[in-house]
Design goal:
Layout lengths: L3 H17 L8 E2 L6 E10 L9 E6 L5 E7 L3 E8 L7 E4 L23 E7 L4 E7 L3 H4 L5 E7 L10 E9 L15 H5 L7 E4 L6 E5 L4 E7 L6 E3 L7 E5 L2 E7 L6 E3 L4 E6 L5 E5 L5 E9 L25 E9 L9 E2 L2 E2 L4 H5 L3 E3 L12 E2 L3 E9 L5 E5 L4 E7 L9 E2 L1 E4 L4 E8 L3 E7 L2 H5 L3 E6 L1
Parallel strand pairs: 1-4, 2-5, 4-9, 10-13, 12-20, 21-26, 25-33
Antiparallel strand pairs: 2-3, 5-7, 6-8, 8-9, 10-11, 13-18, 14-17, 15-16, 15-18, 19-20, 21-24, 22-23, 26-31, 27-30, 27-32, 28-29, 28-31, 32-33
The structure holds CU-O-CU linkage (C2O) and copper (II) ion (CU).
The site of CU-O-CU linkage has 10 residues, from strand 6 and strand 32.
């Protein structure tokens, strides 16, 4: 595994590169309203490190990583044809969209995986404005690590910020080898699966190391941060540049808020929309270790007059009724340095060499990976309260498919961010988090850790709304 030293060395490379090749971030956008967007998943060589280093063997949508930004308005229909030119089956999940179950893209649960040479048409309506993303959802630990993801931005019916004031930042944490290309040999390493997941040594924003963005002086701008890492929890301090919070995981707050704690944690798959009104340039830094720059913002003359932050329409989600909730408890166990207990997988208790052979080493309520029976059934419209207790030595980023939930209570955590709507929550070692939502979306939905190695190694279950 990469150590901190390698990480630093590569990051110093990043600073050099930023000086020699400072460029504005490239972004390709695709508007699908009325049309069909083709996303071709295929191997493509992409330079992640310095321009004089070799290209990495990535897997991309339409030859680029991130894939094209899909940009629509609330209530629009999105039509995407996924064409699979990889040599393994794939599918696309539309992370955070309260979607029709058949379009959720979970290979093996909501659809058959799309075989090599095959295609699948996704067709759905987006009910909420906000910052979302899409990514491969078959062998995600492999496919997302190789670059199969992109942004899905849903504008308000009257977009609150115009394009000069609205920036998408897809942040990814890659593991590069000594030659500066994606380290393929370590993909699937058991030590990552049993520890904190695949952590990298090279951060990119929109596929580039430390890109630069131009912001108009004194005008309200929206930064949409998406953590596309397999496993890294990013730490970001918006108070360093006067940033306020517009939205978590796509769902707008009633009004912009000061950060409730700093640095803010942004777990894998989580999103954070920030409001900034720059008077001078600033850096966006990752602060989980030594601070290092992710992106630079330079301030240019404004002109549009957008000085007041526009109001975002708040979330419109059904309020959970805690007095009549179905209560579900999830005890997380397993992993290195954790309490293993009995772990059952496909109906038998694992022991000895089974862990290595099945690659299962984490469990919810002592069960690893998708059991035949769901974690729970809920009647359509019922409130569900899930109490997750993390009895492992690692933090986890838990994602509910098809619904947004409110965080209703945290125990053992110094973080108090109120009761925001989210689709992914972090729970630290030995902590408890309670979430609640109205199960109003019929179908079979995953509940899993978004540290993709943990999901593959057992932290993956499902529930059904009937
Ligand atoms: Cu973003 Cu089941 O995933
Ligand atoms: Cu996890």
């Amino acid at each position: 595994m990469m150590n901190a030293w390698t990480r630093r060395r590569l990051l110093q490379g990043s600073a050099t590169m930023a000086l020699t090749a400072l460029s504005t971030t490239r972004q390709s956008r695709a508007n699908t309203s009325g049309g069909l967007l083709e996303l071709v998943a295929a191997p493509s060589p992409v330079k992640l490190y310095r321009d004089d280093a070799a290209a990495s063997d990535l897997w991309t949508y339409n030859g680029m990583t991130p894939g094209p930004e899909i940009r629509v308005r609330r209530g629009d229909r999105v039509r995407v044809r996924l064409i699979n030119r990889l040599d393994e089956p794939t599918s696309i999940h539309w992370h955070g969209i309260r979607i029709d179950n058949a379009m959720d893209g979970v290979a093996g649960l909501t659809q058959e995986p799309v075989p090599p040479g095959g295609a699948f048409d996704y067709d759905f309506v987006v009910p909420d404005a906000g910052t979302y993303w899409y990514h491969a959802h078959n062998r995600s630990w492999n496919q997302v690590a190789r670059g199969l993801y992109g942004a899905l931005i849903v504008d308000e019916p009257e977009p609150a910020f115009d394009r000069k004031h609205d920036f998408t930042l897809l942040i990814d944490d890659w593991r590069l080898g000594p030659d500066g290309t994606l380290d393929l040999a370590s993909l699937g390493a058991l030590s990552d699966w049993s520890h904190g997941g695949r952590l990298g040594n090279w951060l990119t924003v929109n596929g580039r190391a430390r890109p630069s963005f131009s912001l108009p002086a004194g005008e309200a701008c929206r930064l949409r941060l998406v953590n596309a890492s397999n496993a890294r929890i990013l730490a970001i301090d918006p108070t360093r540049f006067g940033g306020r919070i517009l939205a978590y995981d796509g769902q707008a707050l009633p009004a912009p808020e000061e950060p409730p704690y700093a640095p803010l944690l942004l777990g894998p798959a989580q999103r954070l929309d920030l409001l900034v009104t720059p008077s001078e340039g600033f850096l966006l830094e990752e602060l989980s270790g030594d601070p290092f720059p992710m992106a630079a913002f330079t301030v240019v003359a404004g002109g549009s007059g957008l000085r007041e932050a526009p109001r975002l329409p708040g979330a419109e989600l059904p309020e959970p009724d805690l007095t009549a909730a179905r209560r579900v408890t999830v005890d997380m166990t397993g992993g290195a340095m954790g309490r293993l207990g009995d772990i059952s997988y496909q109906g038998r208790i694992l022991s000895g060499s089974d862990f290595r052979e099945t690659r299962q080493m984490w469990a919810f309520n002592n069960v690893a990976n998708l059991p035949a029976e769901p974690l729970f059934w809920a009647a359509k419209g019922e409130t569900v309260l899930i109490d997750t207790h993390n009895d492992t030595a690692f933090p986890h980023a838990m994602h509910v498919h098809g619904h947004h939930f409110r965080i209703v209570e945290r125990q053992g955590s110094g973080v108090n961010e109120g009761r925001p709507w989210r689709d992914t929550f972090l729970v630290g070692s030995t902590q408890r988090t309670r979430i609640a939502f109205v199960a109003d979306n019929p179908g079979k939905w995953l509940f899993h850790c978004h540290m993709l190695e943990h999901a593959a190694a057992g932290m993956n279950t499902w529930f059904e709304v009937v």
